């Protein structure tokens, strides 16, 4: 709640307002109309939902969020409520995970409060990249339930369900984290020669791999035609993590070195790598006790090592970008490791040397934070002073001396100090940082505003220009929209947000990932194309063009975040072409409409010479054509949809795309009088659904057998009067409720 004091829209920022909110809204709208969105040819490069993988196609939790968002009248309130709820869910998960390692409730509470406050979750995932926040919030439950299931103490169904919800979010970092947990728990079981535990872990892992196939395989098989098609491994430090930044991760106000297109300079204007100020308390541990206890936390250590390796990856590893996105998981395991070790390996009387080591670590972090961003010396110093003071107080209490907190147990005293300073550093952090460093478009909170934009326009709409050239306020958003906010408008606009984009199509329209285009597109729309002899606007089936005039003015600076090369001179706006008329012009924006709508978007747009076909049916995923005439040697027909992998034709075959981006059917010369159907199924879908069914079905059968066997054992034990046949760990103060 603290960020809302200074920034009421803190949790409605960047990709949430431009991307995720529109996804949720459209998903809820689709579900309430009885459909699950798979493909939308009307939005072209943004419409391959199965390949994008983050539309909640297989995730009941995301579906529930979609329905809630669709029914809510205020975008900021509903989004803020959901995000705070999931921060709490993540915190409770960290608390329960800590308790599963027999951490006292007081210290587990510290972990539960501190984990969601790591810098990357606070300033990146929670405000903007919400799929990352959701995956992170659910991971602790998966870890805890997997350990219980692997040990035979809980049904495997619950561990699988938690992992399933993470994997089907479609966020790669979350799925990687699930894999790391499986490896950590499985390797620990193998090293301890607990074969049954290892087998159960492997079985749950195999089931989750089967689920992951249906989520990710369509995207992998589609990647070759998208802007994400890359196998390069390179490092330009873009959203990368280095050791100097991690060494300052105990300073709540430290701005690390992390270049990005969202901000100028080399330092991120937010504490992106902050983990927790109290990590140096590990200096108070007994190394002898750590060595003795290490086998009990081998899975934590293994997950921590894998997480550290991941965040230190090069900035680009094939389609994987921004290794900093794994920071929340590294923060989670660091906080978990700290409280577990403090609970089980604390020295009897921490020495003065250990106090020097702990305070020295803070001092070194302060120095590193100052060196990276000297202008923030005061706020960095204050954060360090708070941490040093608290560490001294904890050391004093651990030495057996009282604190002015009453007669409390050691764990409770330490927890009160940690929670109090955590509140203070969080307050200082947001007082001196403000909102997320990511971009903010100030999309209106009231959903009635975007619902009214172009509400009376019929037919397909293309926006030429970029809304980023306008003031980011309601004066703009009451007339035009950007990215996925268009899903709230009743107008059918193709300029949407794209996680992946069709390369050839994007090049033809100079389309950017938030839906803006270069102004040169207006002239290009009315030029004849080489393959078809048609104008581009006719190939696309566009019936309306909204012209953003500010984008035609000079001094268009290059900006990486909208993929535009820049232009210094003003570009004149061409006259209204024949067959079109100007509907409106307020001086900033104009709207042109066809005199006769085409109604061809997604359907038949062109045939080769001598070929005559008639469209007889059209849905989002299928088009049927009646072949009337075909010349000797066969003919071709092009449809107003992109040639995504997964299209198949009956009675003909899919040919090479016309103009590089139009789905094309090669019609055989003997097809006259027959019907040709062209249908889309996401590539790998059949195999993916089959594996999904086997994985989900297998877990359900396993859980049912386990339940029946457990009831049988209890019944036999009660009949024999000998007590439970299966030993169960008694519930103690340290066990999981």
Topology readout:
Blueprint lengths: L2 H4 L8 H18 L16 H4 L7 H12 L3 H26 L4 H10 L4 H7 L4 H21 L5 H12 L4 H20 L3 H28 L10 E2 L8 H4 L40 H7 L4 H14 L4 E2 L2 E2 L5 H18 L7 H21 L4 H22 L11 H24 L14 H4 L8 E5 L9 H4 L14 E2 L9 H7 L11 H4 L11 H4 L4 E5 L31 E6 L3 E6 L9 E4 L4 E7 L3 E8 L5 E5 L7 E4 L2 E6 L3 E6 L7 E6 L4 H36 L17
Parallel strand pairs: 4-5, 4-6
Antiparallel strand pairs: 1-2, 2-3, 6-8, 7-8, 9-12, 10-11, 11-16, 12-15, 13-16, 14-15
Short description:
With 737 residues, the protein is an alpha+beta fold.
Specify the oligomeric state.
single chain
Q: Biggest sheet: strands, sense, closure?
A: 5 strands, mixed
Strands ordered across the widest β-sheet: 5-4-6-8-7
Low-confidence stretches: 722-737
Number of helices: 24
Overall pLDDT confidence: 91
Could you walk me through the main structural features you see in this protein, from its secondary elements to its overall organization?
Helices cover 45% and strands 10% of the residues. With 737 residues, the chain is an alpha+beta fold. The protein has a five-stranded mixed beta sheet with strand order 5-4-6-8-7, with no helix packed on it. Strand 14 (653-658) and strand 15 (662-667) form a beta hairpin.
């Amino acid at each position: 709640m603290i960020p809302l004091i200074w920034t009421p829209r803190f949790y409605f920022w960047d990709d949430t307002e431009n991307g995720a909110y529109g996804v949720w809204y459209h998903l809820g709208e689709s579900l309430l109309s009885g459909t699950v969105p798979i493909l939308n040819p009307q939005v072209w490069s943004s419409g391959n939902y199965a390949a994008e993988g983050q539309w909640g196609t297989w995730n009941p939790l995301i579906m529930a969020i979609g329905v809630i968002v669709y029914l809510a009248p205020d975008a900021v309130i509903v989004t803020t409520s959901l995000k705070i709820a999931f921060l709490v869910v993540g915190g409770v998960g960290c608390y329960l995970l800590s308790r599963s390692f027999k951490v006292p409730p007081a210290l587990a509470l510290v972990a539960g409060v501190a984990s969601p406050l790591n810098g990357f979750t606070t300033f990146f995932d929670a405000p903007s990249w919400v799929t990352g926040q959701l995956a992170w919030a659910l991971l602790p439950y998966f870890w805890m339930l997997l350990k219980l299931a692997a040990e035979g103490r809980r049904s495997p169904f619950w561990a699988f369900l938690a992992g399933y919800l993470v994997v089907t979010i479609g966020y790669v970092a979350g799925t990687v984290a699930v894999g790391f947990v499986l490896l950590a728990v499985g390797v620990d079981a193998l090293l301890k020669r607990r074969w049954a535990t290892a087998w159960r872990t492997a079985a749950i892992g195999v089931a989750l791999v089967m689920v992951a196939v249906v989520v990710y395989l369509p995207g992998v098989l589609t990647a070759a035609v998208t802007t994400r098609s890359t196998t390069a491994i390179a490092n330009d430090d873009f959203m990368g993590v280095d050791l100097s930044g991690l060494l300052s991760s105990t300073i709540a106000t430290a701005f690390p070195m992390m270049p990005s297109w969202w901000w100028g300079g080399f330092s991120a204007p937010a504490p992106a790598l902050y983990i927790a100020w109290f990590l140096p308390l590990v200096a108070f541990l007994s190394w002898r006790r750590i060595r003795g206890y290490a086998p009990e936390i081998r899975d934590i250590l293994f997950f921590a090592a894998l997480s550290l390796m991941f965040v230190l990856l090069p900035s680009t590893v094939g389609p994987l970008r921004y290794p900093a996105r794994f920071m929340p998981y590294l923060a989670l395991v660091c906080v978990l490791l700290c409280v577990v070790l403090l609970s089980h390996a604390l020295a009897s009387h921490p020495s003065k040397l250990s106090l020097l080591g702990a305070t020295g670590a803070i001092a070194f972090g302060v120095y590193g934070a100052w060196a990276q961003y000297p202008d923030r010396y005061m706020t960095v110093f204050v954060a360090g002073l708070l941490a040093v003071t608290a560490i001294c107080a904890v050391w004093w209490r651990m030495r057996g001396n009282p604190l002015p907190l009453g007669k409390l147990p050691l764990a409770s005293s330490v927890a009160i100090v940690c929670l109090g300073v955590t509140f203070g550093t969080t307050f200082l952090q947001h007082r001196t940082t403000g909102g997320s460093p990511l971009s903010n478009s100030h999309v209106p909170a009231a959903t009635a505003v975007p619902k009214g934009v172009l509400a009376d326009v019929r037919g397909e709409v293309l926006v030429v220009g970029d809304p980023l050239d306008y003031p980011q306020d309601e004066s703009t958003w009451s007339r035009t929209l950007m990215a996925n906010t268009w899903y709230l408008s009743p107008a059918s606009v193709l300029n949407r947000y794209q996680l992946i984009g069709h390369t050839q199509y994007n090049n033809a329209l100079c389309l950017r990932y938030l839906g803006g285009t270069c102004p040169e597109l207006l002239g290009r729309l009315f030029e004849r194309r080489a393959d078809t002899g048609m104008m581009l606007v006719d190939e696309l089936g566009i019936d309306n063009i909204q012209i953003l005039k500010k984008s035609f003015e000079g001094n268009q600076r290059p900006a990486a975040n909208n993929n535009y090369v820049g232009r210094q001179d003003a570009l004149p706006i061409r006259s209204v072409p024949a067959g079109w008329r100007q509907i409106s012009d307020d001086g900033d924006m104009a709207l042109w409409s066809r005199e006769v709508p085409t109604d061809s978007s997604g359907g038949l747009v062109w045939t080769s010479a001598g070929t005559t076909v008639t469209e007889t049916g059209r849905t989002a995923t299928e088009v049927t054509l009646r072949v009337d005439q075909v010349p000797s040697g066969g003919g071709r027909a092009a449809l107003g949809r992109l040639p995504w992998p997964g299209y198949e034709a009956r009675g003909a075959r899919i040919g090479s795309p016309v103009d590089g981006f139009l789905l094309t059917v090669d019609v055989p010369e003997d097809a006259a009088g027959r019907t040709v159907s062209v249908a889309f199924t996401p590539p790998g879908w059949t195999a993916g659904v089959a594996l999904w069914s086997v994985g989900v079905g297998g877990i359900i059968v396993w859980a049912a057998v386990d339940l029946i066997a457990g009831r049988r054992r209890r019944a036999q034990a009660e009949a024999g009067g000998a007590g439970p046949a299966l030993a169960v760990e008694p519930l103690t103060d340290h066990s999981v409720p």
